[in-house]
Design brief:
Layout lengths: L12 E6 L3 H4 L7 H18 L3 E6 L10 H6 L5 E4 L8 H10 L3 E7 L1 H14 L3 E10 L3 H13 L3 E3 L1 H9 L5 H14 L1 H13 L3
Parallel strand pairs: 1-2, 1-4, 2-3, 4-5, 5-6
Helix pairs in contact: 2-7, 2-8, 5-6, 7-8, 8-9
Protein name: Isochorismatase family protein
Organism: Xylophilus rhododendri
Pfam families: Isochorismatase
Length: 208
């Protein structure tokens, strides 16, 4: 059976993290802030486990937003962080070069704020010929309505909406892939809420 060209694989995508900074998280009202951090960390762990290239960019670190959140810095300690002035990463030469250097045409986007830095980047990426996947539950908006409107606008231009759990399961896909099985399962157990609790339960009840 031929492999689907629509599905994400560890070899065809890159992760772009935009403005995952506490100063911006303070203003997020589209979802619980701790859930947003949990989901973003799970996505970063997923990228690390599957060897997906990661491009990290921040803005206004000295003025308001602060540095990359420590939990994400811990997961991606070996990755450079590119600070910029423009709200749109596609208007920053260093970030553009880093994205191009990954050699990937499918881009996963996570960060803040959905109404601005995420949507501007995704709309620009679509126009530049990339296929954009917005990890919607790892993006934060100022309001639930603003977040939803931004998602709709991006989707209208061809961007694909997804979730962090779908990403990790899509990359793993076959639980007989032993190289990433334990780590992928560990992400779900640690960050997957009720699903993770169920996997822990199954591990205890069915030790074989």
């Amino acid at each position: 059976m031929a492999a689907s060209t629509q599905l994400l694989t560890p070899d065809n995508c890159a992760l772009v993290l935009i403005d995952q900074q506490a100063g911006l998280a303070f203003g997020v009202q589209s979802m619980d802030k701790q859930a947003l951090l949990n989901n973003s960390v799970a996505l970063a762990r997923t990228a690390r486990v599957f060897g997906i290239p990661v491009v990290i960019s921040t803005s206004a670190t000295k003025v308001y937003s602060g540095p990359l959140m420590p939990a994400l810095r811990a997961e991606l300690a070996d990755q450079p962080v590119l600070d910029r002035r423009s709200m749109n990463v596609f208007e920053d030469d260093a970030v553009l070069a880093a994205i191009a250097a990954t050699g990937r045409r499918k881009l996963l986007f996570s960060g803040m704020l959905t109404e601005a830095c995420i949507s501007f980047a995704v709309l620009s990426a679509q126009e530049a010929g990339y296929q954009s996947f917005v990890v919607a539950d790892a993006c934060g908006g100022l309001t639930a309505t603003g977040h939803d409107m931004a998602l709709r606008r991006m989707e209208s231009q061809g961007a694909v909406m997804t979730s962090w759990l779908q990403v990790v399961l899509e990359l793993q896909r076959d639980w007989t892939r032993k190289a990433t099985y334990d780590a992928a399962r560990g992400i779900v157990e640690a960050n997957g809420g009720g699903y993770g609790i169920g996997l822990n339960y199954a591990r205890d009840m069915l030790p074989h």
